[in-house]
Amino acid sequence: MTEVTDLTAGLDLPEQQAEPAGLLSDAIAGLELKPALEAVLMVVDEPATEEQLAKVLDRPRRAVGKALRELSDDYTREGRGFDLRLVAGGWRFYTRPDFAPAVEKFVLDGQHARLTQAALETLAVVAYRQPVSRSRVSAVRGVNCDGVMRTLLQRGLVVEGGTEPETGAILYRTTNYFLERMGLRSLDELPELAPFLPDAEAVEAESQEGIPSFDPDAPDEPSTLAKTDD
């Protein structure tokens, strides 16, 4: 049997670089504990236990627990707008109850803002033609609706609802939140608009199977009903 020769034998090769995990551990070991805890707790989406934090920061659990309690006391003494609490066995930042009105106004302000005429037109097309692709909505309105559709998605009024079999385009439909805001129990309660809409075949012909004749990436232009789109 032929022996396999080690081609690297006798060569003066440089030492392998340290593992990234080792470098990361060395960097963490040099961090000040309290600021490190603050940085980690800023990104958690659920309470982090002392064991988890101790493992991440390579510190004794007792030292981590002591630092967390000192931080919580510091925030309270300084009257900060946030608080560090031990909840459900873990630690997490919370806004202080005294400042709840400011937080509530910030969170709800965008939801209470009125929709533009362009957004209302786009929402109406989705409501009556759903599930419908973005290009078909643009064809019906005669302008690009990408920006407006993003606004409706962010407001929770429309949601992605599968893809179009023929083209793979994303389809959109209205949400339960839309029904709630409109005061409807179901889509069956939408007003009948047939007398005011063009024939379906005519719309499809003009839209060339739902593909707009303009550049989809071009800025939206004002229509006769909507001066600006979101």
Q: Indicate the structural class.
A: mainly alpha
CA(first)-CA(last) distance: 75 Å
Taken in chain order, the helices and strands follow as: HHHHEEHHEHHEEHH
Number of domains: 2
Write out the CATH superfamily name of the largest domain.
Answer: Winged helix-like DNA-binding domain superfamily/Winged helix DNA-binding domain
Count of discrete alpha- or pi-helical segments spanning 4 or more residues: 10
* Residue share in helix: 40-55%
CATH fold call of the largest domain: Arc Repressor Mutant, subunit A
Strands ordered across the widest β-sheet = 3-5-4
Approximate strand percentage:
5-15%
Number of strands: 5
Low-confidence stretches: 1-19, 206-228
Query: What kind of sheet is the major sheet?
Result: 3 strands, antiparallel
Average residue pLDDT: 78
Task: Outline the secondary-structure elements.
Blueprint: H1 20-29, H2 33-41, H3 50-57, H4 61-78, E1 82-87, E2 90-95, H5 100-112, H6 117-129, E3 132-133, H7 134-141, H8 146-154, E4 158-163, E5 170-174, H9 176-182, H10 200-207
Antiparallel strand pairs: 1-2, 3-5, 4-5
Helix pairs in contact: 3-4, 6-7, 6-8
Description:
With 230 residues, this protein is mainly α. The chain has ten helices and five strands; from the N terminus they run ααααββααβααββαα. It has two domains: 79 residues, Winged helix-like DNA-binding domain superfamily/Winged helix DNA-binding domain (Arc Repressor Mutant, subunit A, Orthogonal Bundle); 91 residues, Winged helix-like DNA-binding domain superfamily/Winged helix DNA-binding domain (Arc Repressor Mutant, subunit A, Orthogonal Bundle). It is 45% helix and 11% strand. The strands form two sheets. A three-stranded antiparallel beta sheet has the order 3-5-4.
